[in-house]
């Protein structure tokens, strides 16, 4: 066991589109979207298995917390499934309306940066679903951190926002499929907020059950614990300040690396023409990844 979170660089999320012939990009889009759907379906099955095991072996507060957390995770996976289907429908509409006499593969090749953005976003969504279920598995076993599950939930919201941004770049603003995609994105955000809320509530229930019983303590013991608690609060406040500074620097570096990897500078300007798309194409959705975290 161990933390499911690990460093996942922009290079790992970056599609292999630049390493293959452009006519293969269309095949890669279909392959990655199918892989994302499969990852989400696997996640749903794993959650159902975790729930069955918890009902067989847990009771009381532990069972109540696990049922609530796993139920919210299932709701999120279902919302992601709806979003992936909506994204596929919009992509199909974009290709059919914009390719003219060209084949779908030629359209994807001619618009390679957009295509690569779709591939990268789809990979990020599938990865996020898998990692979140890993985190949930550890939490319900009592071996993981509730905070990791909340971070994974935020990452899923950011990844799905990236997929929406990538999907709608070339869409008609009045498209019914675009409206469905936006609605599906709102559904993901609501479901993500549900995971965060259930996780916070569960953490509070589990921790307070054992940590707030002072009935057997003497006055001297209580005074000692009070002083220890004050020291711990000061330590945690200092650690929190330092960690927030570190997070800010990591995000700056993330945006810079993601932009350069996609051929954009920090101002969103193209560094070099990667395709036959006009130079006014929108900056890659990877720049938006961490900007769309839902409010808890």
TrEMBL record:
Keyword Coiled coil set for record: yes
UniProt subcellular location: Cytoplasm
Gene Ontology molecular function: actin filament binding; clathrin adaptor activity; clathrin light chain binding; phosphatidylinositol-3,4-bisphosphate binding; phosphatidylinositol-3,5-bisphosphate binding
GO process terms (BP): actin filament organization; clathrin coat assembly; endocytosis
Residues covered by the I/LWEQ domain: 17-258
Keyword Coiled coil in annotation: yes
UniProt region (Disordered), positions on chain: 1-20, 261-296
Gene3D superfamilies recorded: I/LWEQ domain
Classification via Pfam families: I_LWEQ (PF01608)
Domain of life from the UniProt record: Eukaryota
Compositionally biased residues, Polar residues: 1-12
Cellular component aspect of the GO annotation: clathrin-coated vesicle; cortical actin cytoskeleton; presynapse
Keywords, sorted A to Z: Coiled coil, Cytoplasm
Main location: cytoplasm
Transmembrane segments: none
The protein's name in its UniProt record: I/LWEQ domain-containing protein
Species name: Chelonoidis abingdonii
């Amino acid at each position: 066991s161990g933390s499911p979170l690990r460093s996942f660089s922009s290079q790992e999320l970056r599609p292999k589109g630049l390493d293959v012939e452009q006519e293969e990009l269309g095949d890669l889009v279909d392959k990655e979207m199918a892989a994302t759907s499969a990852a989400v379906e696997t996640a749903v099955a794993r959650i159902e298995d975790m729930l069955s095991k918890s009902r067989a072996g847990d009771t009381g507060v532990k069972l109540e917390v696990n049922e609530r957390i796993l139920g919210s995770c299932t709701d999120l996976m279902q919302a992601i499934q709806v979003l992936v289907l909506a994204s596929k429908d919009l992509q199909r509409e974009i290709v059919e309306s914009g390719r003219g006499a060209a084949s779908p593969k030629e359209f994807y090749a001619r618009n390679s940066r957009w295509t690569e953005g779709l591939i990268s976003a789809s990979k990020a969504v599938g990865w996020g679903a898998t990692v979140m279920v890993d985190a949930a598995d550890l939490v319900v076993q009592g071996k993981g951190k509730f905070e990791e599950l909340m971070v994974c939930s935020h990452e899923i919201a950011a990844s799905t926002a990236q997929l929406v941004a990538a999907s709608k770049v070339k869409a008609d603003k009045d498209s019914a499929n675009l409206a469905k995609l936006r609605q599906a994105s709102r559904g993901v955000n609501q479901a993500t907020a549900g995971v965060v809320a259930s996780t916070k509530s569960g953490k509070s229930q589990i921790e307070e059950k054992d940590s707030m019983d002072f009935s057997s303590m003497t006055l001297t013991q209580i005074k000692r614990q009070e002083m220890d608690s004050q020291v711990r609060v000061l330590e945690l406040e200092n650690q929190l300040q330092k960690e927030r500074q570190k997070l800010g620097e990591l995000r700056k570096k993330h945006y810079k690396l993601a932009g350069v990897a996609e051929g954009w500078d920090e101002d969103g300007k193209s560094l070099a023409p990667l395709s036959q798309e006009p130079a006014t194409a929108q900056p890659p959705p990877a720049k938006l990844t961490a900007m769309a975290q839902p409010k808890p």
